TrEMBL record:
UniProt name for this protein: Signal transduction histidine kinase subgroup 3 dimerisation and phosphoacceptor domain-containing protein
CDD domains per record: HATPase_UhpB-NarQ-NarX-like
Entries under Gene3D superfamilies matching the protein: 1.20.5.1930, Histidine kinase-like ATPase, C-terminal domain (3.30.565.10)
InterPro entries reported for this sequence: HATPase_C_sf (IPR036890), Sensor_HK_TwoCompSys (IPR050482), Sig_transdc_His_kin_sub3_dim/P (IPR011712)
Phylogenetic lineage: Bacteria, Bacillati, Actinomycetota, Actinomycetes, Kitasatosporales
Length: 410
């Protein structure tokens, strides 16, 4: 069984944010028990432990416990609905609203009545009813749109008003209770909806980041297909036309057919050479271009990227520059896919007759993310470096940091 800290580290940033915001709302539901306990305790203290209050205190605590359990489930399905996940949120919202209203009527009718001669003497059951209504309106605002949520909150207040009057509370005190309750209810509801909105924004940003990565891949494929079309389109059209002309000339017995086919052969050979040039350019990684591209991509992902190639980069042989360009490209991909980095360092130096490319980033989870698999990127880099008598090493680094060294002898 994994420890809570290990489980937390295995989550991505959006998952951590959602878990934090969910439990923030769950704690708001648990506060209902604390509020009812506080109101009941103060009432018993003021009444010097009057036994007549014990039945309504027990009923209030049982109602608060039952509503808390229902609200925990309601918050869960309401958040799922806000995040556009399939759930039966309306059923749980209806249950929690009905339970809250029924609980308000129960405690107000069972509890002590207000003293008409002392308008400032408000029964503690009125505070309990207010706590029940406040706690219930949170998931209502999360699971319903603003207008239906506002109408539901207004309906809850109107449904409880007769019970408040039957409890002996004066008309003026009842009006004050409704106004104050409405203001606090609106504040609680907007706060809860704000938590859900923040969670949805985090997931949308994460989806946008993934879409940006897929778009970059699609753009690269489009560039390659465009280059290939530009190279082969004209040549293939010429080959088709000259082949058709050669067929017509051959049918007529004209000697020019052989000349046309010779030109077709020449164009085909030229096309092969141009395709090889396109593929070679696509498969070649320029060191400076890859460094600039890595900085742009990482900064777009909100990763501070520091690159120090120095003057040694231009003095390196072209094959070494190319293989280092591949290292930077693969390292940038790994930073985006397998870490939650905030900082990345790329440094090139020479020591002991060897060119050393150092790459370092933070944000490495202690437990690999679920999206991390047994990739072949580092294996491919080792094979490329081995072709130049180089090597790729991953020395030990600080916790949460990944460090990689690519070395090639000069």
């Amino acid at each position: 069984m994994r420890s809570p800290l290990r489980s937390w580290r295995s989550l991505s940033k959006p998952q951590r944010t959602e878990l934090y915001l969910r439990w923030s709302l769950y704690l708001m539901a648990l506060l209902l028990l604390i509020a009812v306990l506080t109101s009941s305790g103060l009432a018993l203290k003021q009444a010097d432990g009057d036994p007549a209050l014990m039945p309504v205190v027990r009923v209030s605590l049982l109602l608060a416990l039952a509503l808390t359990l229902v609200l925990l489930r309601t918050y869960r399905v309401a958040i799922d609905h806000y995040l556009r996940r399939p759930t039966g949120h309306t059923r749980w919202i209806a249950v929690s609203v009905c339970l809250a209203v029924a609980g308000c009527w129960t405690v107000l009718l069972l509890g002590p009545k207000a003293d008409p001669a002392n308008p400032s003497d408000i029964p503690f059951t009125l505070y309990v009813a207010g706590d029940l209504l406040l706690s219930t309106f949170g998931p209502v605002c999360v699971g319903l749109r603003p207008k239906p949520a506002a109408l539901t909150g207004l309906g809850m207040l109107l449904a409880v008003t007769p019970a408040v009057l039957l409890a002996g509370v004066g008309v003026g005190a009842t009006a004050g209770f409704l106004v104050g309750q409405g203001l606090f209810t609106a504040f609680i509801g907007s706060s809860c909806r704000g938590f859900a909105w923040l969670c949805a924004v985090v997931w949308e940003l994460d989806a946008a980041r993934e879409a940006q990565s897929r778009l970059a891949v699609a753009e690269e494929r489009l560039r390659f297909s465009r280059d290939l079309h530009d190279v082969m389109g004209r040549n293939l059209t010429t080959i088709a036309l000259k082949s058709e002309l050669a067929v017509q000339l051959a049918r007529r017995g004209r000697p020019e057919a052989a000349e046309q086919m010779a030109e077709v052969q020449k164009i085909a050979q030229e096309s092969q050479r141009e395709v090889r040039d396109v593929v070679r350019g696509y498969r070649t990684a320029d060191l400076h271009a890859e460094a600039i591209g890595a900085r742009a991509v990482l900064r777009a992902a909100d990763v501070a990227c520091e690159i120090d190639l120095g003057a040694e980069a231009d003095r390196l042989p072209p094959p070494v520059q190319s293989v280092f360009g591949w290292v930077i490209r693969e390292a940038t991909t790994n930073v985006l896919r397998h870490s939650e980095a905030a900082r990345c360092l790329i440094r090139l130096r020479q020591e002991d007759g060897r060119a050393v490319l150092e790459l370092e980033n933070d944000g490495v989870p202690a437990v690999p993310l679920p999206s991390q698999g047994a990739g072949t990127g580092l294996r491919g880099l080792r094979e490329r470096l081995a072709a130049h008598d180089g090597e790729l090493t991953v020395p030990a680094a600080e916790a949460g940091t990944f460090r990689m060294l690519a070395t090639v002898p000069l």
